[in-house]
Amino acid sequence: MEPEAKYESKAGDWRNYKRVLLPPVKDLQKLDVYRANGGYEALRSVLIDEKWDPKSVTEEVKASGLKGRGGASFPTGLKWSFMPPVKPGAPRFLCCNGDESEPGTYKDRQLLEYNPHLVFEGILIANYAMSIDVCYLYVRGEYADWITHIEKALADAYAAGLLGKNILGTDFSTEIVIHKGAGAYICGEETSLMESLEGKRAYPRIKPPFPAQRGLWGHPTTINNVETLACVPLIISNGSDWYAAIGAKNHTGPMLYGLAGHINRPGIFEYPSGMLISDLIYEVGGGMRGGKKLKAVVPGGSSVPPMRADQIEGVTMDGDSLRQAGSMLGTAGMLVLDEYTDMVTFLRRITHFYAHESCGQCTPCREGTGWLVDIVTRIDEGGGNLRDLDLLIDLCDGMEGRTVCALADAAAWPVRWTVTRFREEFEAKCRDSVFAIA
Amino acid sequence: MSGSKTVHLPQEPETTIPETDLVFSANELEQIEKYKAMYPTPQGAVMRVLWMAQEKFGYLPPEVIRLVAETLGLPYALVYGVSTFYTQYYKARVGKYVLDVCTCFACQVVGGCDVFSHLCDRLGIEDGGTSEDRLITLRQAECLGACGSGPMLQVANGPYVHNLTPERADDLIADLKRGKLPEFVSMTLPQDEDEMGGNRRTDVDNVDTYETQPVAERLSC
Ligand SMILES: Cc1cc2nc3c(=O)[nH]c(=O)nc-3n(C[C@H](O)[C@H](O)[C@H](O)COP(=O)(O)O)c2cc1C
Ligand code: SF4
Ligand code: FES
Fold first, then answer.
1. Of A161, A210, A276, B48, which has the fewest Cβ atoms less than 10 A away?
2. So what's the ipTM on this one?
């Protein structure tokens, strides 16, 4: 059952990998421990060494191949270079996206709990590279307990002169402000996040204009995920070549993988990108619970297309490989399902999520997510009809790519691909239905 | 936020907070000024002040919304609109402890619905209901970002309780009846267990590890 080195992992010698985002150091969340382990040295270098200026920092990040870890895998250095030239007197903002509400994803919480200063240092270097005045660290409201811990770490950094005015005695000044959300998945979407910060109902904005042109309060803004920014100090300290040599060539760097579901060893794991899905399940995750057979894998959060067990052979956790296999990397928070999972009931809960979380701005999304949950529920409860399966696909056609933000697509993809890839289960439920046409 | 076709008109909860209590103290006003200073406009502080008001008054009825609006110099409708956008702001009166039980997809498949149904039976209430003694309000929650330690729930917008079973849910209810709120729990990373022999933090008392849950009986609630 365990594929013995039949396929090549892009993660190299991952069994001997030394963690860098969450290195094995006790109490790394404390400022003195973080500094004793080389913390804030990348920031010092960036601010003091001749070699660095905003442009060279951005170029270094570009050369590292770092792609965003928030779900869309957009190249980070390229995103930074979209910021327009500095205009004196006009503020510029960064948003560090810690909203983390994508079902299946819980890496940013662990990173913020165990290594908050790495995130702060990444933010500070990003602020330097883009000449940013204030970074809002948006943390979902449910993480209230963690926010208390993060606020304490932030206060320590301020007290040590690592933040605020004239950082480390240089003329560079910048701030980090923690914003507490209050429970809305949509706030993770970058333009919705900005509306939320401005104190409005968080309806996503139409793009263009993109945030770099018109962002927070109309000023140039960049949005990056927590894990993305945590990679930045590592790139500066060790060089872009070092970073680019980790993991998959087209999707470089360390990656926080989440494992959940019917697996023996759930949790967050740090390994190079490009791990074989089979290695993650059978080696890292200790195999399927109770020795059951694998039925399905959702590789990166509820928004990505679920895969059948026979589709994961040789597939690695990077954008290219997963796209070829008919799914996406998303947030790398993987859900593993065993042979006893009812895929219809499973999909029903996903459709409920999107219907609940649609902001209601666009008709295809507001009405579409409602119809999806109604129809899947009807099938699940035994009132379905074989024609409903085509209706579901039609609905997905009417939603994908037709709305302000990508939530409608994220709602449609799991439906389209669960119905297509597990069609026999849906058909069986429809056939058992009292309304089935003989 | 709706996807269902039935239209629910927002129910205005009855006014229960006496006029004389409807004020922010000097300390609170000072804190509000600090919140305002965190954003270029006072409106940026609205979520923080709503949080503060909810902690003070327990929920956000119209008169509390009005107080927040007046304190920040914003239209009532705007603050009301913000408060209704987010699930963690309580628009109607709730029990002393709100239990948000995650039944979202990763918890669903490891028994989140079993735990939720168990709690419904145990407390004799349904989704969104409040127990007769007004101690507990039970809600189904969307993913709370702790999928590896599911099934899980959140108590009163505060601590998470991980790796739930019906028995542990019963223990929690017993604790809450005695007024004992669960403490913050730090989850040990599996790699830390291997490389560091346990949790990396020495400054928290409560530590738990990710567990594999028994087979779920129910997949839908
Ligand atoms: C509906 C929706 C929800 C999202 N939720 C999150 C989230 O919780 N956290 C996150 O970092 N990105 C989220 N994103 C992606 C962000 O819009 C944005 O692309 C990302 O934060 C950019 O950071 P990155 O380039 O570092 O990945 C979401 C996107 C959509 C469409
Ligand atoms: S796609 Fe859905 S969530 Fe996104 S803006 Fe439109 S209605 Fe809102
Ligand atoms: S699905 Fe329950 S915490 Fe993520």
1. A161
2. 0.95
